[in-house]
Amino acid sequence: MNRKNLEFIQILLVIVSMTFAIRASNNMIMTTIPLLSKYYFHFSQTEVGIISATLSLGTFITSGIINSRLKSPIRRKFFILSSIAYAVILPIFFFVNSETIWLVSILAGISLGAIMPNIINSAGLLEDRKARERVLSIYTLALSASLVAGPAIETGILTMFSIPYVFLFFAPLGIIAAILSFFIKFPEENNQSKNKVQVFKNPGFKTAVLNILAYNIPFSVILTFGGIYAIEYLHVSYAGATGLLSTFFVTSFLARIYLSVKPPNSVMLHAYAAISMTVIGLLLILLSNNILIFTAALLILGFPHGLTYPLSIISISRTFKQEERNPANSQFFAIMMIIGVITPTIAGYIANAIGIKDLFGILIPVVLSLLAMLSKYVKYVDEAILEKSSKNTSSIVKNSKT
Questions:
Q1: Where does the sequence pass through the membrane (predicted)?
Q2: I need a surface site. Which of 4, 11, 45, 125 has the fewest CB within 10 A?
């Protein structure tokens, strides 16, 4: 094995390990805070939505406002400090009460906002498109693996311990992430990176955002209210509620294995398939009256969860230069967090008014309207690789003639 391949494997192992640690613990926070606030602090549905939004608000502040404006050397220091802060904050959730949970949630979100965008940047450093997209797909595969393992571990913990203890058991993952943060690679920036990047005008960015909106809106509702729905409508235990979410992430994991083995040539076809499955899954939840139908809905919804995020970051990697990807990835991640702020807040009010079950039905026309908007831009992402391929072919022909 040559030095280049060895370095590649080392970078990949660091990215995969840190991604697993951060996403498993972060997802645990997002699914456990609603249960903790609802059943320990007796929050209303509206308050459950707002506390979930608070976590995402903190992440948005860091990712969209701070991280996107920092140059690589300073951003690396900020990334390491944020990783250490996250490791400290994670076990503090064990000690919160109905008042301090608000402050600790927003601090956790602030620390996370500098972590995930920079892991994405590191995963997309390779110049070769196929190699880069394979690394990005493996990165998202690590995300899915953590989302399968996290709820499964949490389910085991809740069979023996109460909800607050979950945060203590997940605390070592924060420590691992803090250690690994020192080994994450950051891009070298040249003078061209000083130019202002037109992020929001790029069709690849618009594709990434509309694509993620079509899934993350219902996903935010599932994370916030899925466990409560299972407990109150299907009468499962706390452990059963988190266990159901682990089945959801199993099919997500399978979808990302597929993308890791076969990086997509057509983002458009995969995006259309993902949104179609999202609509089918939401319909099943709306019609579900027993745990089997609800489980089938979660299994179906897992596939678009596995497809959507990789397709969005691939869209960005295809249509932005390497030095432009930090602002693009940071703004993209910030928009994801805005979804996490707005959706649970509005969903909480709607759930109070019409019930959680009908809330899922309202999401269907929203997803279909986003599909209509996506169709205007997604074709440009597929055309981008054709143009690059054509340029490379012309260059080869020209060189052969000389």
A1: 48-66, 78-96, 102-123, 135-153, 165-187, 208-231, 237-255, 267-285, 291-311, 332-354, 360-378
A2: 4
